[in-house]
């Protein structure tokens, strides 16, 4: 017993070793197995050990074995041995024979004590052996484990949990409460603190001892506070702050240069330097006169014990990696500051799926210009159909098959993204062949902190024509966003080859408009962007931003997300999918539209998984199918896709610059009822914020429309009569009965007397029409409803290739065909403006869209809306007031401008009506 007593292992309470995580270690070498049993270890020494040693000369009696180290576990008051270790000098492990002798000695010692685990080491290399399996097979049986020996490794091996994936969400819930109650810190600070301690445990459980020595690991902090202070001269929290924390920042250096030329060239920068590590948020550092860092030691130790009780952070459940940050959003009502850089993973995952990253060629670039905590770039590493194995390490250097680049302006967020990436690279962290320098370089090359200008952030260095895929959720700010424009005006010189003031001069309100310009310019031809945008951006009536965006990109999809899809706002949001045009005159494909009522989890703060209720996942699958098979097929009207009630293919013309880009208008009232859409539920304060924001946008739109209208109405005008057969033709439609539509269905839309422009009476067969001498309309037209109590006098613009019934009057601003059946053709229509390929229109000087506006104004002013009928002869008696130039000829350009303002005003009216409907139907919580 002398050695046990000399080393202080014998106490009044029995035998007690040095703490080793959940275990204790007895560092001996001169004490026999028999004496250990008599000293109080709970085991029965083996009388004999039947293992055929080749190099080690075992004692004749098993009880005479003297293991160097014995690891024990306290179970209900019992001290049970669980492993033995043999420590040898390097000089004694040079030859294979020496290694075999040491392994045999460890196995014999383990079998003598009845334990399964044995190991040998020279302090740098560790060999793990299954003693029971070795005895059964008659030869050394090793356990596959590459990590250095630590309490976590012992725990995994003893419990057989090396391959078990753990979900630390309960741990994060508990630690959240402890941190918040002690510090009352903001959610972001609580998150940073949790991540910092999590990183300490994670690195301690995975990094080699040569990188993070024992004195700088999590386990050194686990002793009794009084004992710790006697040994170290300070409390655990002080030791962590002053010794361990600086060591981690030394390993993951705060000042490191991006060494990837492709990343630097992307932004036109000669040098990009990282100034952040993987930790730098510790709420307990907020000391004051009455509260010192040491006063938090009890709370700190409580958190350490929670981590220790949880177990090793080796194989972390991928779901936790994806949902780590959601925990902190769910636990606080004050989510705005944290939620601004977080996209729920149930939205990230389908967006990643739609991007089809696995199909990208080598050296492609995937960019998130508002990366936040990095979900869009890191989640693909976990999905088998995205980018598994994308990050590797070769010859001490990080490699990425597809280059991932994330930008943020916030240093704390950049730290969280790096820590998040390290968790996603856990296998590489455990691999002894991966150096910490290579790991840190991978983090630095992936997540860039761009805060040279803290207002503009990454907008200061726009990539150009170089990115294959963009996945992002840019910030949404309209009020006060003018500061960004002013900041851009004061940027001197070129940035990545462009002057920012002119580069970003594409119209639009809010920061998201600047990001859309950034995105469209960054994509290479054929590159795609998957962007989360607010509904307000899609519905703004100002055309310039949309026109500039369409100049460079095609819209591939517009997907409505449910309200409350995001933690921190009930603001309606969309996923907008863009593709950079390959050539200037490239045709535009139909737009894939969807209404996602669900995202696979409840939309309250609890976020309970509902995997069987996930419209967004279904839409993602349908979009992939559409993008890979049918994107070139034109459709004449919104058409249900693959028999899915909440997915449609919509003509590209519906997404022209002067159109709304939301999708609900492409579903009829009956279809909305079929979808069973429910009223939203939001908090009263949020309702006030949303209503105020929406009304302010409407007021801004109205003010701009009024100013434009006033400017356009100051010029000269002239009255023209529709009875002038040299300038107009007025005629009625054709008789088509309901029975005709039922008996001869086809593809030609038939319009009749309705109050809404999108309402169609039905679709008729083209050949059936020809048999009756009827052709569909060759050119666009303006129509006037001739009958109907609520519809009479209503005016619509109609595209070509349709027919009107005989209770609709058709007006076109050119004469009827001449005797030879020919019309003189004029200028070719702009397909870009009209969204249709109709070639040349007959010669005319009255714009069709303006004609619809002017005719509607004449009918309203003349009181014809209240008449029972307004047939062809009556319409032909009407006059319209037309802008003219100095020579008294119709001014086509001013007509088009007035028509555009009128359409904008109609859109504003629709938004007002929708706002009122929403206000009335929403449920206040």
Describe the fold and architecture.
The protein has 925 residues and is of the alpha+beta class. The chain is built from 32 helices and 35 strands. α6 packs parallel to α12, α7 (187-206) runs parallel beside α16 (411-424) and α21 packs parallel to α23 (544-552).
Mean pLDDT reading:
88
Query: Which descriptor suits the 3D outline?
Result: elongated
The main pleated sheet reads as:
10 strands, mixed
Q: Which band does the percent of strand residues land in? A: 15-25%
With strands numbered from the N-terminus, the spatial order across the biggest sheet is 15-14-11-16-17-19-18-20-22-21
Key terms:
925 residues; alpha+beta; ten-stranded mixed beta sheet; six-stranded mixed beta sheet; elongated
In brief:
This protein has 925 residues and is an alpha+beta fold.
Write the layout of secondary structure elements.
Elements lengths: L1 H5 L3 E2 L2 E2 L2 E3 L2 E5 L5 H7 L29 E7 L2 E10 L8 H18 L3 E5 L4 E5 H7 L13 H9 L9 H15 L3 H20 L18 H8 L3 H16 L4 E2 L3 H6 L6 E2 L22 H14 L7 H13 L5 H4 L5 H11 L9 E4 L6 H4 L12 E4 L2 E4 L2 E6 L2 H14 L1 H5 L5 H11 E3 L17 E6 L9 H8 L10 H4 L6 H13 E12 H5 L4 H9 E8 L12 E8 L10 E5 L19 H15 L9 E3 L2 E7 L18 H7 L5 E2 L1 H29 L4 E5 L7 E4 L5 H6 L1 E7 L10 E3 L1 H6 L9 E5 L9 E4 L4 E2 L3 E5 L12 E4 L2 H4 L5 E3 L5 H14 L10 H5 L2 E5 L8 H30 L1 E2 L1
Parallel strand pairs: 6-7, 11-14, 11-16, 14-15, 16-17, 18-20, 23-35, 26-30
Antiparallel strand pairs: 1-2, 3-4, 4-5, 5-6, 7-8, 9-10, 12-13, 17-19, 18-19, 20-22, 21-22, 24-34, 25-31, 26-27, 28-29, 28-31, 32-33
Helix pairs in contact: 3-4, 6-7, 6-11, 6-12, 7-16, 14-24, 21-23, 26-32, 30-32
């Amino acid at each position: 017993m002398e050695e046990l007593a000399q080393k202080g292992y014998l106490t009044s309470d029995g035998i007690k070793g040095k703490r080793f995580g959940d275990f204790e270690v007895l560092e001996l070498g001169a004490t026999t197995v028999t004496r250990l049993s008599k000293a109080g270890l709970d085991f029965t020494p083996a009388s004999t050990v039947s293992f055929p040693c080749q190099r080690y000369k075992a004692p004749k009696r098993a009880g005479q074995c003297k293991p160097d180290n014995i690891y024990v576990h306290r179970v209900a008051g019992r001290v049970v041995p669980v492993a033995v270790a043999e420590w040898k000098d390097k000089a004694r492990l040079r030859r294979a024979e020496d290694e075999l002798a040491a392994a045999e000695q460890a196995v014999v010692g383990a079998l003598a004590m009845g334990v399964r685990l044995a190991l040998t080491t020279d302090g740098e290399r560790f060999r793990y052996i299954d003693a029971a399996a070795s005895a059964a097979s008659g030869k050394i049986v090793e356990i596959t484990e590459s990590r250095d020996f630590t309490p976590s490794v012992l725990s995994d091996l003893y419990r057989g949990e090396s391959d078990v994936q753990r979900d630390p969400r309960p741990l994060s819930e508990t630690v959240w409460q402890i941190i918040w109650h002690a510090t009352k810190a903001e959610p972001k600070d609580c998150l940073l603190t949790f991540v910092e301690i999590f990183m300490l445990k994670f690195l301690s459980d995975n990094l080699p001892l040569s990188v993070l020595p024992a004195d700088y690991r999590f386990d050194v902090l686990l002793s009794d506070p009084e004992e710790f202070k006697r040994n170290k001269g300070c409390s655990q929290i002080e030791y962590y702050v002053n010794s361990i924390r600086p060591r981690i920042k030394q390993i993951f250096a705060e000042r490191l240069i991006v060494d990837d030329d492709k990343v630097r060239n992307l932004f036109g920068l000669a040098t990009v330097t990282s100034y952040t590590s993987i930790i730098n948020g510790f709420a307990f550092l907020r000391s004051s006169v009455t509260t010192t860092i040491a006063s938090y030691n009890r709370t700190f130790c409580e958190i350490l014990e929670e981590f220790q009780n949880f177990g090793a952070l080796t194989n972390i459940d991928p779901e936790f990696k994806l949902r780590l940050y959601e925990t902190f959003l769910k636990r606080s009502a004050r989510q705005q500051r944290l939620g601004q850089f977080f996209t729920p993973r149930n939205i990230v995952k389908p967006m990643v799926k739609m991007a089809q990253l696995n199909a990208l060629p080598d050296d492609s670039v995937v960019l998130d210009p508002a990366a936040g905590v990095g979900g869009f770039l890191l989640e693909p590493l976990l999905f088998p159909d995205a980018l598994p194995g994308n990050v590797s390490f070769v010859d001490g250097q990080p490699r990425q098959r597809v280059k991932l680049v994330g930008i943020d302006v916030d240093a704390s967020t950049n730290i969280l993204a790096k820590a998040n990436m390290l968790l996603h690279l856990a296998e590489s962290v455990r691999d002894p062949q991966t150096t910490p320098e290579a790991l840190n370089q991978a983090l630095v090359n992936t997540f860039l902190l761009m805060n040279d200008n803290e207002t503009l952030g990454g907008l200061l260095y726009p990539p150009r024509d170089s990115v294959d895929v963009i996945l992002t959720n840019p910030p949404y700010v309209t009020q006060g966003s003018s500061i960004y424009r002013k900041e851009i005006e004061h940027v001197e010189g070129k940035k990545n080859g462009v002057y920012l003031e002119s580069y970003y001069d594409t119209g639009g309100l809010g920061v998201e408009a600047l990001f859309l310009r950034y995105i469209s310019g960054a994509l290479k031809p054929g590159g795609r962007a998957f962007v989360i945008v607010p509904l307000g951006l899609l519905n703004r009536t100002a055309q310039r931003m949309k026109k500039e965006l369409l100049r460079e990109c095609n819209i591939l999809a517009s997907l409505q997300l449910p309200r409350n899809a995001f933690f921190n706002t009930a603001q309606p949001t969309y996923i907008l999918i863009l593709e950079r045009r390959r050539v200037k005159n490239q045709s535009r494909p139909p737009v894939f539209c969807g209404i996602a009522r669900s995202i696979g989890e409840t939309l309250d703060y609890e976020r309970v998984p509902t995997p069987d209720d996930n419209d967004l996942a279904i839409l993602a699958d349908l979009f992939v199918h559409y993008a890979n098979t049918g994107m070139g097929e034109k459709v004449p009207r919104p058409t249900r896709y693959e028999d899915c009630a909440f997915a449609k293919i919509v003509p590209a013309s519906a997404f022209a610059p002067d159109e709304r880009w939301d999708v609900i208008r492409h579903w009829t009232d009956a279809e909305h009822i079929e979808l069973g859409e429910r009223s939203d539920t939001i908090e009263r304060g949020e309702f006030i914020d949303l209503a105020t924001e929406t009304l302010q946008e409407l007021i801004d739109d109205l003010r701009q429309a009024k100013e434009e209208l006033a400017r356009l109405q100051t010029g000269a005008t002239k009255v023209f009569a529709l009875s002038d057969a040299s300038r107009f033709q007025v005629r009625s439609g054709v008789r088509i009965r309901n029975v005709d539509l039922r008996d001869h269905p086809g593809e030609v839309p038939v319009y009749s007397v309705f109050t809404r422009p999108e309402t169609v009476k039905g679709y008729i067969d083209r050949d059936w029409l020809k048999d009756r001498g009827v052709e569909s309309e060759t050119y666009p037209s303006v129509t006037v409803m001739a009958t109907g109590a609520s519809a009479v006098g209503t005016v619509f613009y109609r595209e070509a290739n349709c027919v009107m019934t005989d209770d609709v009057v058709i007006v076109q601003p050119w004469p009827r065909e001449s005797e030879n059946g020919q019309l003189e053709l004029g200028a070719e229509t702009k397909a870009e403006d009209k969204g249709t390929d109709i070639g040349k229109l007959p010669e005319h000087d009255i714009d069709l869209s303006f004609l619809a506006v002017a005719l509607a104004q004449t009918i309203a002013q003349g009181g014809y809306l209240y008449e029972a009928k307004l047939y062809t002869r009556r319409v032909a008696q009407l006059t319209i007031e037309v802008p003219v130039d100095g020579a008294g000829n119709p001014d086509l350009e001013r007509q088009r401008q007035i028509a555009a303002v009128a359409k904008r005003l109609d859109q504003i009216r629709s938004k007002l009506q929708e706002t009122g409907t929403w206000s009335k139907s929403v449920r206040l919580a």
